Amino acid sequence: MKYAFNTWAYSSFPAWLPCYPLDEAIRRIAAIGYDGVEIGCAAPHAWPAYLNKERRAELRALLTDCGLQAVSLLATPGGGPGFNPASPLAEEREATVRYYNEVIDLAFDLGAEKVLYIAGWQIFGTSRQQAWDRSRDCLDRIASHANNKGITIVVEPTAAATNLIETADDALELMRSVARDNVKVMFDTLHALYRNEIPADYVRVMRGDLVHVHVSDSNRVIPGEGRVDWIGLMQALNECGYSGYLTMEIGLDSRAADPDQIARTALRYLKGVESQLNCDRGR
Predict the structure, then answer these.
(1) Which stretch of DSSP H or E encloses residue 279?
(2) What is the distance between the alpha carbons of residues 115 and 113, in angstroms, rounded to a whole number?
(3) CA–CA separation, 187 and 173 (whole Å)
(4) Which one-letter DSSP state was computed for residue 123?
């Protein structure tokens, strides 16, 4: 398995503290032993407009020096700025497409191959079909720009945070509706648990279209401290030939969190699960 860590825990999103410069977060994540990093595109880390050409080159050089792969970039739709691709407001949808295209350009500059797509949320007074159609149209435009950069757009079902794409089947249906080779799917164990579903079954449903996985335990706690069957999840990933990263998206909900401790503990635990599986296969 390859392991990555999401930078939210080292930034001020969504909690205000703790907060470290992106350079520092990259160095720490690499020193702990991760193979890759997922970069959250919010200030102060990676809001595209705040990173000029020279700064992007510096960050890419730092990633190379640290032996850390930029795995994926995660946009930040929601809240006051909006960025809802399912919005009834044409102006908001246009702003969303522009923002995603800026994130795609940043991913290209940093050497990342994937950008995650949050399909948005259905607003009161809007039918689900209207919301779906608007999100699909935005996704198609975003994926067209991404294709020119060699970037894969990854649809994430986010049941705990949005109300449009909630399940593995939802994500696959949206992916198929745009019919583009550079649109695939992912899932987050947190959102599967929110629906009282089994994360390993998301692997089996998504199979060859699964290119990214977010891992956390119940309520975003460290893997091993909640109710995810990690052995079952890793077995399913192995059986389906998953070749992507397991990306930790944890430690982002409290200023009391210690990102180094969280990153280190999560990596040690999941590598232990992987070792157990390898031993079982060798018997």
Answers:
(1) helix 259-282
(2) 7
(3) 14
(4) P
pLDDT at 88: 96
Contact call for residues 75 and 38 (beta carbons, < 8 A): no
Tokens encoding 137 = 């149209």
The residue ranges of the chain whose pLDDT is under 50 are: none
Place of tokens 């649809």: 155
Q: What share of the chain is helix, strand, coil (3-state, %, to 5)?
A: 50, 15, 35
Position 213 scores a pLDDT of: 98
Q: Is the CA virtual torsion 269, 167, 162, 36 positive or negative?
A: positive
Q: Determine the Cα–Cα distance for residues 51 and 47; give it in Å rounded to an integer.
A: 7
Domain layout of the chain by residue ranges: 2-282
Task: Report the predicted TM-score, pTM, of the whole model to 2 decimal places.
Answer: 0.96
User: CATH number of 2-282: 3.20.20.150, 2.40.400.10, 3.40.980.10, 1.10.260.30?
Assistant: 3.20.20.150
